[in-house]
Amino acid sequence: MLALALVLALSSCSSNPVAPHADAPPRAWDGRTRAVHEWGTFVSVQGSDGVALDGLRHHDRDLPDFVHDLARAGGITALQLKMETPVVYFYAPGTWRIEVDVRFPRGLVTHWWPTAQRVNVPCARTAEALDEHVARASNLKDGFVSWGRRDDLVILPPATEVELAPVAADDPWGFAREVAANPLRVVRTVEQEGSATRYELEHERLLFYRGLGDFALPLAVRVRTEERRVDERAGIVRRLGLHLELASGSEALRGLFVIDVEGDVAGFARLGDLASSRAADVELALRPKSEATAELVQVVAAELGRAGLFADEATAMARTWQHAWFGDEGLRVLYVLPAGVIERELPLTVSHGVHQAVGASTWDAAPPESIVRVFVARTEVLTPARERELRDAVRRTRAGEAKAAEEIEAWGRFAAPWLQRVAALEPDPVLRATALELRAAARRRP
What we know:
Strand content: 35-45%
Low-confidence stretches: 1-22
Number of domains: 2
Largest sheet: 12 strands, mixed
Shape: globular
Oligomer: single chain
Number of strands: 23
Mean pLDDT: 86
Distance between the termini: 22 Å
C-alpha cells in the first residue's frame, strides 16, 4: 500500500459560527470567549515519482516518560502516514467542565497525555503482536481517545497555579507549554488489587495525542529535474523542477513551502497557494542552517497565525517542530491542509460543557464558542540523486561494508520506506532481496 509524501500542511478548521477571519486572525485570546485551539502534524514519505511509501515507525524522538504509549516495549509501523503531536488548548474566563472526544476512523491513537478516560487498545498487547496487528490495513482503523466523560477533565481559571510534570530544559515538549492557555486538571483513578481505589491529579496546559493512519493526503510531489551547483557568490544552489499534483476534487492548499537541508546548510522557498496541479521551478540558495532555521521559525509561525492560531500557539508549534522541519537532512514540502480533510479524517467533539465564572456559585451551560484546528502535513520527498545514494548503500551493505550498514541503521524511522523504494527501483534480484531483508529488519527494530 502506498505511503504519503512528506508534507507540512497547515489546516484551519472551524466547527462554530465564530471562526477567525482568514486574513486577520486574532493574535491572542480575548479573555472572554470559550475557545478550543488545536494544532498537529501529519508526516508521510514519497519517492521522486510521487509514489507514497509505507513503513514509518511510530516512534520518532523520545516523548517524556509520563506520556502513555500503546506499545511501550516496541515500535509500530504506519501504512500511509504518521499523525504527530496534536495538542489541544482551552480558553475560558472561569472553570469549565467539558468532554473531549477525538475519532480516527482510518487510524489508531498510539500516545496520549494526560490519562484518557477511553482510548483504543487492540486486543493484542505485546509489542510483537501490536506490530503484526497494525501491519494489516484492516486493523489500522476505528481509533479514538476521549477525556471528561466522568467529569475527570476540568479547565481551570487562567490564573490558577499548577505543578506540571517536569521535562528537560531542551525538551520540545516545553515549547508547547509556552502559551497563555488555561491550565487543566485530569483525575486519574488508580485501582490496585487488595487496596482501596485512590485518585491522583494530573495537571497540564494541553491535551496531547498521536497516532498512525492509513489514508492519502491531497498532494503528491514529483521531482522532474534537479541540479546542484556551487556559486562563488551564492554558495551552494539547488534547482528543482517539481510537479505538484493535487488530488482530484481536493480543496485548494495554502502556504506551500519547499525546504532542503544538507548537512549544516539549508534553504527554503515559498510556493504560495495551490488551487490546481502545476509545475514549479524552485531555486534554493543554501546557507548556514542556524540562519535559515531562525527565519523559517518566523515565516512558518506567521503562516500558522494566518491559519487561525494565536501568535504564541503558532510560535510554540514552529519551535516544537523546528528540529524536524528545518533540521532533518532531506527535501520536504509543507502546505496548508484543507479544513475538510481534518474534519473527515480526525473528527473532534467538545460537548457537555458547563462553566462557572470566577467568584460565582452557579454553573451555566457552556459549549465552546470557537474551535480552531490547524494541522501541518510534512511530506518527505526523495530526489533521483538521493535514491541513487540509497541504492548504493544497499549495494555496499550486500558487499559486506560495515560503514554502509551503519548508514542504513542511521536512517532511523525512514529506513523502512526508503528500503521499500530501493526494492521498487532495483533491477538486480539479489540486491532487491537484500533491500527487502533490510526493510524487514528495520520494521522489527524498536
